[in-house]
Amino acid sequence: MTLNYKVHAVDSVKSTNTAVKALAKDGAPEGYVLVASSQTNGRGRLNRVFFSPKDSGLYVSILLRPSMPLPPYALTCMSAVALCETIESFRVTSNIKWVNDVYVQNKKAAGILVESALDPIGAFQYAVVGVGVNLYFPDGGFPKSIEQTATAVFDGTPDEEQRRQFLKRFLLRFKRYYEQLPEISYLESYRERLIGLGRRVLVSEPDGMHYGTALDIDSAFRLIVRLDDGSEKALDRGEVTLL
What we know:
Number of helices: 4
Largest sheet: 8 strands, mixed
Structural class: alpha+beta
Number of domains: 2
Order of helices and strands: EHEEHEEEEHHEEEEEE
Helix content: 10-25%
């Protein structure tokens, strides 16, 4: 399976994922990449707002049309590993908080949102992988709602050449892992970077909230949690808060 990119850059867009999903429904080919300098309505997982100010971040969505079934979080976790490797290529340490957040110095520096459409038999019609990275600290700082939990990859002022190099390195790593599918060659890399294993967690799901201890991830990237009642649960949805 070969992934050939066609990169289109814009100054601003409401949401790169929303724009690429519309193109996917119109038949755009796999490998279309939309890159924006800012988003006016950036979205994260669980319909949260993703702060996307001009020039301080990198906001990218990639259109895929996988030819085989994949575990629900395979593309999310693949993107997280490719993103961590990219950050580390600039000699910056990174980690992953299950399932889709990339951390630098114990704060969130990037998030991933994968949205897909399946046909009646469960095969992919398309998948859109959205990645938002805080490359630089924004003018005026982060909003008060996230200033204690958000950070940036780089300390310096915005550098367009560095931004281009970051995108290039990420797309190359993403392509390498994608072309190896259905082999999940990045499982151990994901596990090694995962923060929170062995720690107390609060699990928030549609059916309620539960306390427990994060133990591991399985081959489908589900987080295995031992709940306080002694039972074990493999999470394939919901939100985990580290305690």
